[in-house]
């Protein structure tokens, strides 16, 4: 039922099937758009969803960086073994490990790969046997990520935010 407008009662708006919208926009007394409360509710819900999603996203990114570092260290372990089989010695030169076609091309020692910097060293143990080790540290020094260590044993060890060693926890 449509009633005529009076001084005390403005003209009623025709309603739309969509809540909050009408067919007579701009007429005096008719709702035009969303209210401030409706907009604030939408903004609050969006902020809550973002607050939940962003930390999960950064956690996922950190895990992906760490997985990439572990994969690269596994490749170094394999390349060192192949290099030993061919040359009867280990190397601390990533360029020489590239000849095994397991390590991707790059330059220098230490070598940056992904979000980590890898440092390769060689030496001898107490019995005079040759040994090698590789340490992976986040390039940006992020102390919330794992820092990795591996050696001739092939075991990968880590510390969170600190330089790992042979006595660090294995993964």
Ordered list of secondary-structure elements with their pairings:
Blueprint lengths: L35 H52 L6 H4 L13 E3 L2 E9 L5 E9 L7 E6 L4 E5 L8 E2 L1
Antiparallel strand pairs: 1-2, 2-3, 3-4, 4-5, 5-6
Summarize the structure in words.
By secondary structure, the protein is α+β, with helices and mostly antiparallel strands. It contains two helices and six strands, in the order H-H-E-E-E-E-E-E. The protein has a six-stranded antiparallel sheet with strand order 1-2-3-4-5-6, with helices on one face. Strand 2 (116-124) and strand 3 (130-138) form a beta hairpin. The longest helix is centred in the middle third of the chain and has 52 residues, at 36-87. It is elongated. It starts with 35 loop residues before the first helix and ends with a strand. The mean pLDDT is 85.
Poorly predicted sequence stretches spanning 5 or more consecutive residues = none
Strand order of the largest sheet: 1-2-3-4-5-6
Number of strands: 6
Main sheet specs: 6 strands, antiparallel
Structural class: alpha+beta
Shape: elongated
Tell me roughly what share of residues is in helical segments: 25-40%
Taking all Cα atoms into account, the compactness measure Rg is: 32 Å
- Overall pLDDT confidence: 85
Helix-strand sequence: HHEEEEEE
Content of β-strand? 15-25%
- Distance from N terminus to C terminus (CA atoms, Å) equals 74 Å
What's the number of helices?
2
